[in-house]
């Protein structure tokens, strides 16, 4: 027997928002702004001023912030009339970024292990350079 997919009902009085292909550039730009906030902006630092780790065993890190953002985009998809799958493009962009950040964290960990210092020879937090491509 086939599995029946269950979805929660939207809150009373809510309505869907129509998203068109014309909205794609603006929405992706806003998503890139959020990603930048978590990787390079104020969201990449603890309130004490120290930089958050990219990934790791602690819950408060940049990858988890990006995963929470992705989950909020997925949750908002139920309130969007999105025939051109713009929101799916945002989810794909965030997933791609998460993979790049996790790879950068693995590379930094390998470098740390090889060099024997917290962040390699320079003792500075590794920088991330991401290439963002529109879907």
Sheet/helix structural class? mainly alpha
Question: Would you tell me the overall average pLDDT?
Answer: 84
Q: What profile does the largest beta sheet have? A: 2 strands, parallel
Approximate helicity band: 40-55%
Strand content: under 5%
Number of structurally distinct domains: 1
Radius of gyration from CA coordinates? 18 Å
Strand order of the largest sheet: 1-2
Number of strands: 2
Shape summary: elongated
Order of helices and strands: EHHEH
Distance between the termini: 36 Å
The poorly predicted ranges are: none
Our count of helices gives 3
Q: How would you describe what is shown here?
A:
The structure is a single chain. This protein is mostly helical and 135 residues long. It has one domain (19-115). The chain is 45% helix and 3% strand. Helix 1 (24-39) runs antiparallel to helix 2 (62-76), helix 1 runs parallel beside helix 3 (86-115) and helix 2 packs antiparallel against helix 3. The longest helix has 30 residues, at 86-115. The model has no long low-confidence stretch (mean pLDDT 84).
Summarize the structure.
The protein has 135 residues and is mostly helical. Helices cover 45% and strands 3% of the residues.
